[in-house]
Design brief:
The chain has one domain (3-217). Helices cover 5% and strands 57% of the residues. Strand 4 (62-79) and strand 5 form a beta hairpin. Strands 1, 2, 3, 4, 5, 6, 7, 8 and 9 form a 9-stranded mixed sheet that branches. It has one helix at 207-217; strands spanning 3-5, 23-39, 42-59, 62-79, 84-97, 102-113, 122-136, 139-156, 163-180. It is mainly β. The chain is built from 1 helix and 9 strands; from the N terminus they run E-E-E-E-E-E-E-E-E-H. It is globular.
Length: 235
C-alpha cells in the first residue's frame, strides 16, 4: 500500500489560554511529520512532533509564567475526498517557570478537522478536547478544555524512498480550566490511580494509544509506535 508522510498534523492541536481565577494560558509552535497510509480515499496516519510552549498558569488569581518543550505523537484517520481528519495525540513537555521552578505537562487531546486538504499540504483548522496533568514543583493540577490550531507544510525528500513526506510548522491554542489534584501520584500507584477522570470514553480512542495515554498520565515516558494499530507498512 502506498504510504505518504505529511508534516505537522500534530500542530493543529496545541496551546493554553487564561482564566480569571484558575486556568492555563499559553501558545506555541509545533514542528513535525506524519506518515499516511491511503486506502482509496480513507487515510490512516502516524504523527510525531516537537513542541515549544510559552505561557502562564493562573492559580487562584496568581500568574506563573513558564516555558516548556517536549514531544507529541499519535494517530489519525481521515477522508481525502471529504477533507475530514480525526486525530488523537499524547504529549509531554518539561521546562521552568519565570522564577526557575520546574514544570512538566503531560496528557492528551483529540481533534477533528473538516478542511484538511492533504493533497494540497494545507492541513486546515481543527478543534477538540484536551486533558493535561501539570506538575509545578511538588503541586499537581489537572486541566481540560477545548484545543484549537492550524498547520500547513511542504513536501520534502522522504526519509523512506518508498514514501512521500511533508514537514511543516503550526501554531496552537488551548482553552481550559485548572483544578488542583488532591491525590498526587505515589511511587507504587496503579495506572491512572490518582487521575479523577479523562474527558473521553476509552472506545473513542485507538485502544493501544489510549492505554499509553493513561500510562503517560501516571509518569510513563511519551514514546511513539512504529505503525498505526492494525496497519502494516504494506497496508
Amino acid at each position: 500500500m502506498k504510504r505518504v508522510g505529511i508534516g505537522c498534523v500534530v500542530a493543529m492541536f496545541f496551546a493554553l489560554m487564561a482564566f480569571a481565577q484558575s486556568g492555563i494560558d499559553a501558545e506555541g509552535v509545533a514542528t513535525g511529520k506524519t506518515v499516511l497510509w491511503f486506502h482509496g480515499t480513507e487515510v490512516t496516519a502516524l504523527i510525531e512532533s516537537e513542541l515549544h510552549v510559552n505561557g502562564s498558569l493562573v492559580i487562584d488569581g496568581r500568574t506563573v509564567p513558564f516555558t516548556a518543550s517536549g514531544t507529541a505523537f499519535g494517530e489519525g484517520i481521515g477522508d481525502s475526498a471529504a477533507l475530514t481528519l480525526d486525530v488523537w495525540l499524547i504529549l509531554e513537555a518539561v521546562g521552568t517557570t519565570e522564577d526557575g521552578d520546574p514544570i512538566s505537562i503531560r496528557g492528551g487531546m483529540a481533534g477533528s478537522s473538516e478542511d484538511a486538504d492533504l493533497a494540497a499540504s494545507v492541513l486546515g483548522t481543527a478543534t477538540g478536547p484536551f486533558f493535561l496533568v501539570v506538575t509545578l514543583g511538588t503541586d499537581v493540577y489537572q486541566t481540560e478544555g477545548t484545543a484549537e490550531g492550524s498547520a500547513a507544510g511542504a513536501f520534502v525528500v522522504p526519509d523512506d524512498p518508498l514514501t512521500m513526506q511533508m514537514e511543516g510548522t503550526g501554531t496552537y491554542t488551548l482553552v481550559g480550566d485548572l483544578v488542583p489534584n488532591a491525590h498526587p501520584p505515589e511511587a507504587d500507584a496503579e495506572p491512572s490511580g490518582y487521575i479523577t477522570h479523562v474527558p473521553w470514553a476509552a472506545e473513542s480512542w485507538p485502544p493501544e494509544l489510549f492505554d499509553r495515554l493513561l500510562a503517560l498520565l501516571d509518569g510513563a515516558p511519551c514514546e511513539p509506535t512504529d505503525e498505526p494499530e492494525g496497519e502494516t507498512a504494506d497496508g
